[in-house]
Amino acid sequence: MTAHKHLTFLPIAAVLLPTPAMAAAVPLPSDLSVGAMFVQADWLVKLVMIGLALASLATWTIFVAKLIELRKANRSEAQVHEQLSSLRSLRDAALDGNLAFTPLVREALAELKLSADAISDPEGIKERIVSRFQRHEARVARSMTRGVNVLATIGAVAPFVGLFGTVWGIMNSFIGIAEKQTTNLAVVAPGIAEALLATAIGLVAAIPAVVIYNHFSRQIAAHRAIVSDSAAAILRLVSRDLSRGQAVTLVKEG
Questions:
Q1: What's the CA gap between 242 and 126, in Å, rounded?
Q2: If DSSP codes are grouped into helix, strand and coil, which group holds residue 81?
Q3: In 172-202, which positions are buried (b, 16+ CB within 10 angstroms) versus exposed (e)?
Q4: How far apart, in whole angstroms, are the C-alpha atoms of residue 93 and residue 253?
Q5: DSSP 193-206
Q6: What DSSP character marks residue 63?
Q7: Per-residue pLDDT at 41
Q8: Whether the Cβ atoms of residue 119 and residue 249 lie closer than 8 Å to each other
Q9: Nearest Cα residue to 175 out of 186, 188, 165
Q10: What is the pLDDT of residue 187?
Q11: Which regions of the chain are under pLDDT 70?
Q12: In the chain, N or C: fewer CB atoms in 10 Å?
């Protein structure tokens, strides 16, 4: 009876346990570095990785360019605001070589000239100047956010693009399992690793883009606040000139 049992289970064990010949038939990959996995990946997964790498390059390019632009703009606007805060009349700003050509001063002077026949209505003049300042602030905001919105798109889309590459790569791995009729890890692991690399690159592209976008959103809001402070300073100068009756003289000189 005992001998019969051994004879029954021996063929099953022979099927389940891999023989040395089977193990040697599927060699383990010698190189699983990032570069090697990229070279061995499916063409569509390669395209996904290349696209994500370009998106990451665009993120850092926008970061450097926008950082320089914002620092320069903040420094310039802070100097303008400091100079305006020390003036007593819009005429002083109009005679200053630096302030006379700033957008806010030009907007205020332009409105005063257009309203030369309505000097008796100071509140109306101030409302129109405020309207001009608001449009200027909106233009500044649009200019500063140019390029930053690309970061938001990269941060939102990159993980899903990487996931698409991963799904495609894993699908190809399962197709390979079916074709080779083996579940040996030496066959399955490289394809899955290449697929997961696409998700990793997607996260590498998306995370900095989101962080940089949030940083620039705060910086742009801070810059817009400085512009608003400069506009308020000019509006005070206009209000003083209107109260003193000096606005007529300023319009005639202009």
A1: 9
A2: helix
A3: bbeeeeeeeebeeeebbebbbbbbbbbbebb
A4: 13
A5: HHHHHHHHHHHHHH
A6: H
A7: 67
A8: no
A9: 188
A10: 64
A11: 1-41, 182-190, 246-254
A12: N
pLDDT of residue 10: 39
Q: Calculate the CA 77 to chain-centre distance.
A: 24
Neighbours of 155 (CB within 10 A): 21
Rounded Cα gap, residues 34 and 47, in angstroms: 15
Nearest 10 degrees: CA dihedral of 181, 184, 190, 194? 60
What 8-state DSSP symbol labels residue 117? G
CA distances from 112 to 8, 87, 106, 135 (A): 106, 18, 10, 17
Distance CA 148, CA 69 (A): 12
CA distance 160 to 104: 44
Helix, strand or coil, per DSSP, at residue 86: coil
Q: Rounded to whole angstroms, how far apart are CA atoms 71 and 185?
A: 53
The pTM (predicted TM-score) of the whole model is 0.75
Q: How many other C-beta atoms lie within 10 A of the C-beta of residue 88?
A: 12
Q: CB of 51 within 8 A of CB of 201?
A: no
For residue 207, the model assigns a pLDDT of 95
- Gyration radius of the chain's alpha carbons: 34
Query: What's the length of the chain?
Result: 254
